[in-house]
Protein backbone atom coordinates (compact mmCIF):
# COMPACT_ATOMS: atom_id res chain seq x y z
CA UNK A 1 0.00 0.00 0.00
CA UNK A 2 1.36 3.40 -1.00
CA UNK A 3 0.62 6.65 0.79
CA UNK A 4 1.73 9.87 -0.83
CA UNK A 5 2.94 13.05 0.83
CA UNK A 6 2.29 16.21 -1.16
CA UNK A 7 5.84 17.47 -1.71
CA UNK A 8 5.29 21.16 -2.40
CA UNK A 9 6.39 22.37 1.05
CA UNK A 10 6.73 21.04 4.58
CA UNK A 11 8.18 18.05 6.45
CA UNK A 12 7.84 15.52 3.63
CA UNK A 13 10.67 13.18 4.70
CA UNK A 14 9.38 13.11 8.29
CA UNK A 15 5.88 12.12 7.14
CA UNK A 16 7.34 9.39 4.90
CA UNK A 17 9.33 8.03 7.86
CA UNK A 18 6.17 7.91 10.02
CA UNK A 19 4.16 6.23 7.23
CA UNK A 20 6.84 3.57 6.90
CA UNK A 21 6.95 2.99 10.67
CA UNK A 22 3.18 2.43 10.38
CA UNK A 23 3.78 -0.33 7.82
CA UNK A 24 2.99 1.35 4.49
CA UNK A 25 5.16 2.70 1.69
CA UNK A 26 5.56 6.47 1.69
CA UNK A 27 6.18 8.40 -1.53
CA UNK A 28 6.72 12.09 -2.29
CA UNK A 29 4.09 13.46 -4.70
CA UNK A 30 5.33 16.23 -6.98
CA UNK A 31 3.07 15.77 -10.05
CA UNK A 32 -0.68 15.27 -10.33
CA UNK A 33 -0.32 12.04 -12.33
CA UNK A 34 1.48 10.46 -9.35
CA UNK A 35 -1.83 10.55 -7.44
CA UNK A 36 -2.96 7.56 -9.55
CA UNK A 37 -0.31 5.36 -7.90
CA UNK A 38 -1.31 5.95 -4.26
CA UNK A 39 -4.17 4.90 -1.99
CA UNK A 40 -3.95 7.77 0.53
CA UNK A 41 -2.51 11.30 0.62
CA UNK A 42 -1.00 13.47 3.36
CA UNK A 43 -0.94 17.25 2.95
CA UNK A 44 1.83 18.41 5.31
CA UNK A 45 2.41 21.62 7.20
CA UNK A 46 4.16 24.71 5.91
CA UNK A 47 2.47 27.97 4.98
CA UNK A 48 -1.12 27.44 3.81
CA UNK A 49 -1.22 30.43 1.44
CA UNK A 50 1.99 29.28 -0.26
CA UNK A 51 0.79 25.66 -0.45
CA UNK A 52 -2.51 26.88 -1.95
CA UNK A 53 -0.67 28.94 -4.58
CA UNK A 54 1.61 26.03 -5.48
CA UNK A 55 -1.37 23.65 -5.66
CA UNK A 56 -3.05 26.02 -8.12
CA UNK A 57 0.15 26.51 -10.13
CA UNK A 58 0.71 22.75 -10.52
CA UNK A 59 -3.00 21.85 -11.04
CA UNK A 60 -3.37 19.96 -7.75
CA UNK A 61 -6.69 21.55 -6.65
CA UNK A 62 -8.97 19.65 -9.07
CA UNK A 63 -6.73 16.57 -9.02
CA UNK A 64 -6.96 16.26 -5.21
CA UNK A 65 -10.70 16.98 -5.27
CA UNK A 66 -11.09 14.06 -7.72
CA UNK A 67 -8.86 11.89 -5.49
CA UNK A 68 -11.19 12.72 -2.58
CA UNK A 69 -14.35 12.18 -4.66
CA UNK A 70 -13.10 8.64 -5.34
CA UNK A 71 -13.22 8.07 -1.56
CA UNK A 72 -9.46 7.93 -1.12
CA UNK A 73 -8.33 9.10 2.35
CA UNK A 74 -6.58 12.44 2.84
CA UNK A 75 -4.81 13.61 6.03
CA UNK A 76 -3.98 17.30 6.48
CA UNK A 77 -1.57 18.38 9.24
CA UNK A 78 -1.23 22.01 10.40
CA UNK A 79 -1.29 24.01 7.14
CA UNK A 80 -2.67 20.86 5.48
CA UNK A 81 -5.69 21.14 7.78
CA UNK A 82 -6.24 24.72 6.55
CA UNK A 83 -5.96 23.56 2.93
CA UNK A 84 -8.67 20.91 3.53
CA UNK A 85 -11.12 23.29 5.28
CA UNK A 86 -14.34 24.60 3.71
CA UNK A 87 -14.02 27.90 5.60
CA UNK A 88 -10.93 29.85 6.67
CA UNK A 89 -11.55 32.77 9.04
CA UNK A 90 -10.60 36.11 7.49
CA UNK A 91 -10.15 34.63 4.02
CA UNK A 92 -12.76 34.76 1.27
CA UNK A 93 -11.70 31.67 -0.63
CA UNK A 94 -10.92 28.17 0.64
CA UNK A 95 -8.26 26.01 -1.04
CA UNK A 96 -9.66 22.47 -1.45
CA UNK A 97 -12.84 23.13 0.55
CA UNK A 98 -13.33 19.42 1.22
CA UNK A 99 -13.82 19.19 4.98
CA UNK A 100 -16.82 20.77 6.70
CA UNK A 101 -14.78 22.74 9.23
CA UNK A 102 -14.04 26.39 9.94
CA UNK A 103 -10.42 27.08 10.83
CA UNK A 104 -8.45 29.98 12.29
CA UNK A 105 -4.88 30.36 11.01
CA UNK A 106 -2.03 30.85 13.55
CA UNK A 107 -4.57 30.59 16.37
CA UNK A 108 -1.87 29.78 18.92
CA UNK A 109 0.23 32.81 18.01
CA UNK A 110 3.68 33.26 16.52
CA UNK A 111 6.63 30.88 16.25
CA UNK A 112 7.81 31.61 19.80
CA UNK A 113 4.45 30.38 21.16
CA UNK A 114 5.13 26.92 19.70
CA UNK A 115 4.87 24.08 22.22
CA UNK A 116 4.58 20.33 22.78
CA UNK A 117 1.98 18.51 24.84
CA UNK A 118 0.39 15.09 25.35
CA UNK A 119 -3.09 14.78 23.82
CA UNK A 120 -5.88 12.25 24.12
CA UNK A 121 -7.09 11.25 20.65
CA UNK A 122 -10.32 9.32 20.13
CA UNK A 123 -9.49 5.87 18.69
CA UNK A 124 -5.92 5.83 20.09
CA UNK A 125 -5.37 4.21 23.49
CA UNK A 126 -2.67 6.27 25.20
CA UNK A 127 -2.09 10.04 24.80
CA UNK A 128 0.07 11.02 21.82
CA UNK A 129 2.84 13.63 21.76
CA UNK A 130 1.74 16.66 19.74
CA UNK A 131 3.96 19.46 18.41
CA UNK A 132 2.19 22.79 17.77
CA UNK A 133 4.06 25.28 15.54
CA UNK A 134 2.11 28.46 14.60
CA UNK A 135 -0.82 26.07 14.67
CA UNK A 136 -4.34 26.63 13.37
CA UNK A 137 -7.46 25.73 15.32
CA UNK A 138 -10.71 24.17 14.21
CA UNK A 139 -13.29 26.73 15.36
CA UNK A 140 -16.38 24.73 14.36
CA UNK A 141 -17.35 21.48 12.67
CA UNK A 142 -20.29 20.33 10.54
CA UNK A 143 -22.71 17.51 11.43
CA UNK A 144 -20.67 14.85 9.62
CA UNK A 145 -17.41 15.73 11.40
CA UNK A 146 -16.19 13.72 14.39
CA UNK A 147 -14.01 15.64 16.88
CA UNK A 148 -11.03 13.42 17.76
CA UNK A 149 -9.04 15.68 20.08
CA UNK A 150 -9.20 19.00 21.93
CA UNK A 151 -6.64 21.13 23.73
CA UNK A 152 -7.90 23.69 26.30
CA UNK A 153 -11.43 23.04 24.99
CA UNK A 154 -10.38 23.98 21.42
CA UNK A 155 -10.62 21.39 18.60
CA UNK A 156 -7.21 20.25 17.32
CA UNK A 157 -8.04 17.01 15.46
CA UNK A 158 -11.10 15.84 13.54
CA UNK A 159 -12.31 13.30 11.01
CA UNK A 160 -15.01 13.43 8.36
CA UNK A 161 -15.36 10.05 6.67
CA UNK A 162 -12.18 9.57 4.62
CA UNK A 163 -10.76 12.98 5.66
CA UNK A 164 -8.50 13.41 8.72
CA UNK A 165 -7.03 16.67 10.01
CA UNK A 166 -4.79 17.78 12.89
CA UNK A 167 -3.63 21.24 14.01
CA UNK A 168 -0.34 19.77 15.17
CA UNK A 169 2.63 18.00 13.59
CA UNK A 170 2.53 14.25 14.42
CA UNK A 171 5.49 13.67 12.07
CA UNK A 172 7.88 15.66 14.30
CA UNK A 173 7.88 13.04 17.08
CA UNK A 174 8.80 9.36 17.24
CA UNK A 175 5.14 8.56 17.99
CA UNK A 176 3.66 7.38 14.69
CA UNK A 177 0.26 6.27 16.05
CA UNK A 178 -1.71 9.03 14.29
CA UNK A 179 -0.08 7.94 11.02
CA UNK A 180 -1.04 4.35 11.97
CA UNK A 181 -4.63 5.58 12.43
CA UNK A 182 -4.49 7.07 8.92
CA UNK A 183 -2.91 3.93 7.41
CA UNK A 184 -5.76 1.93 9.00
CA UNK A 185 -8.30 4.33 7.39
CA UNK A 186 -6.67 3.65 4.01
CA UNK A 187 -6.69 -0.12 4.63
CA UNK A 188 -10.41 0.02 5.50
CA UNK A 189 -11.18 1.78 2.20
CA UNK A 190 -9.08 -0.77 0.30
CA UNK A 191 -10.93 -3.64 1.99
CA UNK A 192 -14.41 -2.28 1.23
TrEMBL record:
Gene Ontology CC entries for this record: cytosol; glutaminase complex
Protein name listed in UniProt: Pyridoxal 5'-phosphate synthase subunit PdxT
PROSITE patterns linked to this entry: GATASE_COBBQ, GATASE_TYPE_1, PDXT_SNO_1, PDXT_SNO_2
GO molecular function: glutaminase activity; pyridoxal 5'-phosphate synthase (glutamine hydrolysing) activity
Pfam families: SNO
Subunit structure as annotated in this protein's UniProt entry: In the presence of PdxS, forms a dodecamer of heterodimers. Only shows activity in the heterodimer.
Gene name of this polypeptide: pdxT
Pathway the protein acts in: Cofactor biosynthesis; pyridoxal 5'-phosphate biosynthesis
InterPro entries to which the protein is assigned, alphabetical: Class_I_gatase-like, PdxT/SNO, PdxT/SNO_CS
Catalytic activity, reaction form: aldehydo-D-ribose 5-phosphate + D-glyceraldehyde 3-phosphate + L-glutamine = pyridoxal 5'-phosphate + L-glutamate + phosphate + 3 H2O + H(+); L-glutamine + H2O = L-glutamate + NH4(+)
Record flagged with keyword Cell inner membrane: no
Biological process annotations from GO: L-glutamine catabolic process; pyridoxal phosphate biosynthetic process; pyridoxine metabolic process
Similarity field: Belongs to the glutaminase PdxT/SNO family.
EC number of this enzyme: 4.3.3.6, 3.5.1.2
This protein's UniProt keywords: Glutamine amidotransferase, Hydrolase, Lyase, Pyridoxal phosphate
Domain of life: Bacteria
Classification of source organism: Bacteria, Bacillati, Bacillota, Bacilli, Bacillales
Residues that hold L-glutamine according to the record: 46-48, 105, 133-134
Active site: 78, 169, 171
Role, per record: Catalyzes the hydrolysis of glutamine to glutamate and ammonia as part of the biosynthesis of pyridoxal 5'-phosphate. The resulting ammonia molecule is channeled to the active site of PdxS.
Entry annotated with the keyword DNA-binding: no
